[in-house]
Design goal:
Shape: globular
CATH topology of the largest domain: Endonuclease, Chain A
Distance between the termini: 14 Å
CATH superfamily of the largest domain: Endonuclease Chain A
Strand order of the largest sheet: 1-4-10-9-8-5-6-7
CATH architecture of the largest domain: 2-Layer Sandwich
Strand content: 25-35%
Order of helices and strands: EEEEHEHEHEEEHEHEEEEEEEHEE
Helix content: 10-25%
CATH class of the largest domain: Alpha Beta
Number of strands: 19
Length: 285
C-alpha cells in the first residue's frame, strides 16, 4: 500500500551567505522499502507542470516513469537539459537512450571525481533535491528523502532555485562541450530506439507500448520478455505516433504456458528488445 509521508513548512532560507527576503515553500518526502511511489509521484507531478525549463543533474537515471515524464515535457515545448554521470549511456535499463531518441539535450559528466548530483530545477523557481536518485531501486527498495523548495520569481534576491540553476549552468557549460561528439554519436546509435514500455499491468497481464517518434513504425521482430518467456511481434504490427499500443496475455500467451511470458503480480521485470536483440527498455516492479 502506498502512503504519502510529507511535511510542508514555510521558512526563511539562508544559502551561500545570502538570506532570502521572502518565504519559500519547502516540502519534505521520505520513503522506505515498505513505502514506495511517494517521491516518484511527486516528481512526475512537478515535471508535468513544467512550462518553460527543466534542468536535471543525476548520478543515476533508470526510472521509466520519470523518463517518460521528461520526454513528454520536452515534447510539449519545455526546454529540457539532462546532465548524467559518465557511464549512464551504458547502464542496462537506463533512460539515456530514450531521452536522446526523443531529441532531449543530454550531456555526460566526464572527468575526475564521481558525479553524485541529484537535483532538478523547474521553471527557475522549483528545486527538487535530496538523496533520492531517479532509479527503480530508490523508488522501490531504499530509504530515501527528497526536498522540494519553491521560491517565487518575483524577487531580486538570490533564491535557492536561482543558485541551483546557476550551478547547473556552470556544469552544463563545462561538460556539454566535451560531450557534444559523444551525444551526437549516441543520437545516431539510438536513432531506431523510438519504442518504449509505457505501462505494465501485471495483474491484468497487459503491456502498453508507446511510439515516441513522429512516424508510424512496424515492430515486426521486436520482442517482450521476462527472461522466462518471450513474445515476438509479427509482421504488420504498426505503432502510430503517440498512440498507446496495448497487448495482453490472451495474445502473448493464449495457452497460459507456464514456460511462456507470464507477469508476476509482484517482483518481476519486463524487457523490450529490438530485432537485433538489444534491450532498449525495461520495467521492474
Amino acid at each position: 500500500m502506498r502512503r504519502r509521508l510529507a511535511v510542508s513548512v514555510f521558512l526563511l532560507l539562508a544559502m551561500g551567505g545570502v538570506t532570502l527576503a521572502q518565504s519559500c515553500s519547502v516540502r519534505c518526502y521520505f520513503v522506505t522499502p515498505e513505502v514506495d511511489g511517494v517521491v516518484e509521484t511527486a516528481i512526475i507531478s512537478a515535471i508535468n507542470r513544467a512550462q518553460k525549463t527543466l534542468d536535471i543533474a543525476l548520478f543515476s537515471f533508470t526510472d521509466d516513469q520519470l523518463g517518460n515524464a521528461v520526454v513528454q515535457a520536452h515534447r510539449r515545448g519545455a526546454s529540457v537539459r539532462v546532465l548524467l554521470a559518465e557511464g549512464q549511456d551504458r547502464v542496462l535499463g537506463g533512460e539515456h537512450g530514450k531521452l536522446v531518441s526523443a531529441g532531449v539535450s543530454v550531456a555526460m559528466a566526464q572527468g575526475l571525481g564521481y558525479f553524485h548530483h541529484s537535483f532538478a530545477v523547474i521553471d527557475g523557481e522549483l528545486v527538487i533535491t535530496g538523496s533520492y536518485d531517479w532509479s527503480d531501486a530508490a523508488d522501490q527498495h531504499n530509504y530515501e528523502n527528497a526536498v522540494f523548495i519553491s521560491c517565487p520569481l518575483s524577487t531580486t534576491a538570490q533564491t535557492v532555485p536561482a543558485q541551483y540553476a546557476g550551478e547547473f549552468a556552470r556544469l552544463w557549460a563545462a561538460f556539454r562541450g566535451g560531450s557534444a561528439a559523444s551525444t551526437s554519436q549516441a543520437a545516431e546509435s539510438f536513432a531506431a530506439i523510438t519504442i518504449i514500455i509505457d505501462e505494465v499491468d501485471p495483474i491484468g497481464e497487459c503491456v502498453q507500448l508507446l511510439n515516441i517518434s513522429t512516424r508510424t513504425i512496424d515492430i515486426e521482430g521486436w520482442a517482450i520478455s521476462d527472461l522466462e518467456g518471450v513474445y515476438i511481434f509479427p509482421p504488420e504490427t504498426l505503432l502510430h505516433p503517440d498512440e498507446p499500443f496495448r497487448i495482453c496475455g490472451d495474445t502473448y500467451n493464449p495457452t497460459h504456458n507456464i514456460q511462456g511470458l507470464d507477469l508476476n503480480d509482484v517482483h518481476d521485470e519486463l524487457f523490450l528488445s529490438s530485432p537485433q536483440g538489444k534491450i532498449v527498455d525495461e520495467v521492474v516492479w
